[in-house]
Amino acid sequence: MRKTQIAPSDLARSRSGHELNRGAYRASLSKAMGALAVAMALFALPAEARADCDVTDTGIPDDAAFKLDAGGVRQGLARAGIGIGGYYYGETFYNWGGFDQGGEYDGVLELYINADMKKLGFWRGLCFHANGYQIHGNSITAANIGSLMPVSNLEATDATRLFELWFQQTMFNEKLSVRIGQLAADEEFVTSDGGGYFLNGTWGWPSITAADLPSGGPAYPLATPGVRVAINPNERLGLMIGVYNGDPAPACANEDPQRCNDHGLDFELDDDPLLMVEGVYRYNQKGRLPGAVKIGGWDHFGTFQDQRFDSGGALIAVTANDGRPLDHNWGLYGIIDQLVWRVPGSEETKGVGIFARFVGAPQDRNLIDFYADGGVTFTGMIPGRPDDAFAVGFAYTNISDRVSAFDVDFGEPVPRNYEALIEICYTYQINPGWSLQPNFQYIFQPGGNVAGVEDATVVGARTTIGF
């Protein structure tokens, strides 16, 4: 579970009023699956360099707080090219406001395996990765607050589930990599470095993608079959292209998509594809104040529904018919991360950083049509504590005009309009691999201005332990 890319809760993963038409665009899916075959063919190309596949010589990760190795098993596996490990994330929050007041605990045990396939008799540059979660506890967002931007990026329906399972081939001195298998887009796309210091789920997979894509999109805790190609011709430029099955959960009677794929073992391949593209320009990487700009977007090839008008152009609030079918759903985004002051003598990029993200999507077929966040991070500022961090951020989720108009049509006294968040988080490293994060959040208009739901104040803390 990478701290920069963990997606929102089950509450925010609803289909948000539109349903994917599974019978449409099968030809598009066939083309996407053809891309998978091309990627597999690339595995046979010679590799000029081998990635480390995240397997250390001792078999114990560098970020492990407890270097457990009973009987030398992990070291023995490492000699064969296999690394195993895990993390435990535990957190508790208490809130005032929302629709109820109280406290909740939730936790996630993550276990993973990485393998250098060269040592297992295959070829250079081929890596394997799989991880899974045991998720337990209660979501404070679902139980007490009802916000679109979930309090924690760990929140999910209780389950023991597989997450990702993939092979990756690195080629041409690591300038090209192809990843294929069960993938999560939130592990690589639409992420900012600065957002990784916060706990609210929106800083990873933002509320706009969680609400607008079927079942929340390919994001924690629901991965889906796909392929990702990354090209990095030099240290400045990079391009990623990902094609995923468009709905990570099969259709079922339960409204919670996580219950429809409750163990992560439904490897769906019959949905219209989701295409994601992201380019990055990194500048001043060897200078004092490095930065990066990302531009990206997505296109879902499925059929979505108009949020206000039916097929005849009449108001849904009057006819109670389904919304007018609309082909495709897409979005565009831009991200910037910039170090503005560097700790004197710091060999790493420690200091004061700023970041911002802007995301937009069509307002006629989506609950959310605009999203923005940004903030300031302070890292390595305290002498003798280079891995501590302090972060302050603001996020804004805009309800589309079409949805607001539907609320008026339906007779709501106050239409939904926006939700906003202020978050303050401190990361205190107890020792390498073990951290504590006290956290404060203030959520304006949870749910986008829903009657009976008050602004919410949330305090809590998370501990993370690697082993």
Describe this structure in words.
There is one protein chain. By secondary structure, the protein is mainly beta. It has a single domain (11-466), classed as Porin. Helix content is 12%, strand content 44%. The chain is built from 8 helices and 16 strands. The protein has helices at residues 26-42, 73-79, 140-145, 207-212, 257-260, 316-319, 401-409, 446-449; strands at residues 82-98, 102-116, 126-137, 159-171, 176-183, 224-231, 237-245, 273-283, 291-310, 323-342, 351-360, 368-379, 389-399, 418-431, 434-444, 454-466. A 16-stranded antiparallel beta barrel has the order 1-2-3-4-5-6-7-8-9-10-11-12-13-14-15-16. β6 (224-231) and β7 form a beta hairpin. The protein is globular. The two termini are 13 Å apart. Mean pLDDT is 90; it is low at 2-33 and 35-51.
Give a quick precis of the structure.
This protein is mostly beta strands. It is about 10% helix and about 45% strand. A hairpin with a 7-residue loop joins β8 (about 275-285) and β9.
**Helical element count?**
8
Strand line-up in the sheet with most strands:
1-2-3-4-5-6-7-8-9-10-11-12-13-14-15-16
Strand content range: 35-45%
What is the number of beta strands?
16
The CATH C-level name is Mainly Beta
